[in-house]
């Protein structure tokens, strides 16, 4: 598996970022502790998405923070991104890996243990991490599955051979719970995108993650 630091995973939302913009949000968030950026905008055309992706890729150059493209695996190379993230209804992992080649990062969204087992059966080398959720109710993705809770997160992180990123309703108060239930990272959208002070919002989440990692076991 190709490794990366999944600790604080930002999923962009163009509408939420508003006038401040996706690129500026990414720059501020990465400077404050974001370790992975996923570019997501299901509503824009491919050419607009590529232009946005190239702008973000340029901003990330030299930071060591990878850029992941949501769903549109075919555009990863044009953007100059480091990989892609697919859901259960998107391309299958075999096809996605074939398109990406052996070195790119590939994430897969799962909601159940059955999803994890299915991914294992087609090959552990295809995928690099799992996105697990939504853990809590969320509003940024209307077509997302129902929130499954911390118990399901624990089940999946225990069974998964891949590192797992918790997503769905995460904020600074919930970050320690996600980490305590086996998450290798937390993914956020509205907790950073569109916040009046992106830097401060990111630092709060990053601090919560770091402090949770230094807490005594069971604490």
What is the name of the CATH class?
Alpha Beta
Number of distinct beta strands: 8
Largest sheet: 8 strands, parallel, barrel
Q: Compute the number of helices.
A: 9
Number of domains as seen in the coordinates: 1
Determine the strand fraction and express it as a percent band: 15-25%
Helix/strand order, N-terminal first: EHHEHEHEHEHEHEHEH
Write the layout of secondary structure elements.
Elements (H helix, E strand, L loop, with lengths): L7 E4 L2 H4 L4 H10 L4 E4 L6 H15 L6 E4 L5 H4 L3 E4 L6 H8 L4 E6 L2 H10 L6 E4 L16 H11 L4 E4 L7 H6 L4 E4 L9 H17 L5
Parallel strand pairs: 1-2, 1-8, 2-3, 3-4, 4-5, 5-6, 6-7, 7-8
Helix pairs in contact: 2-3, 2-9
Q: How is this structure best summarized?
A:
Helix content is 39%, strand content 16%. The protein has 219 residues and is α/β, with parallel strands linked by helices.
Explain what you see.
The chain is of the alpha/beta class. The chain has a single domain, classed as Aldolase class I (TIM Barrel, Alpha-Beta Barrel), CATH 3.20.20. It has nine helices and eight strands. It has helices spanning 14-17, 22-31, 46-60, 76-79, 93-100, 113-122, 149-159, 175-180, 198-214, and strands spanning 8-11, 36-39, 67-70, 83-86, 105-110, 129-132, 164-167, 185-188. It has an eight-stranded parallel β-barrel with strand order 1-2-3-4-5-6-7-8, surrounded by six helices. It is globular. The model has no long low-confidence stretch (mean pLDDT 94).
């Amino acid at each position: 598996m190709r490794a990366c630091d999944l600790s604080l995973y930002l999923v962009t939302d163009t509408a939420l970022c508003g006038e401040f913009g996706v690129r500026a949000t990414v720059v501020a968030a990465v400077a404050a502790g974001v370790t992975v950026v996923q570019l997501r905008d299901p509503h824009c055309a491919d050419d607009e998405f590529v232009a946005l992706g190239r702008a973000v890729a340029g901003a990330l150059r030299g930071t060591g923070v990878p850029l992941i493209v949501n769903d549109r695996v075919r555009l990863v190379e044009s953007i100059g991104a480091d990989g892609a993230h697919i859901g259960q209804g998107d391309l299958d992992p075999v096809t996605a890996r074939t398109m990406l080649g052996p070195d790119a990062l590939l994430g897969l969204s799962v909601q159940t243990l059955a999803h994890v087992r299915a991914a294992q059966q087609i090959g552990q080398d295809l995928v690099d991490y799992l996105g697990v959720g939504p853990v809590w109710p969320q509003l940024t993705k209307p077509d997302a599955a129902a929130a499954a809770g911390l118990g399901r997160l624990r089940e999946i992180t225990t069974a998964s051979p891949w590192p797992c990123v918790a997503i769905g309703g995460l904020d600074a108060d919930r970050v320690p719970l996600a980490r305590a239930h086996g998450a290798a990272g937390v993914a956020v959208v509205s907790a950073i995108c569109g916040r009046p002070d992106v830097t401060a919002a990111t630092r709060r989440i990053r601090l919560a993650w770091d402090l949770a990692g230094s807490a005594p076991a069971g604490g």
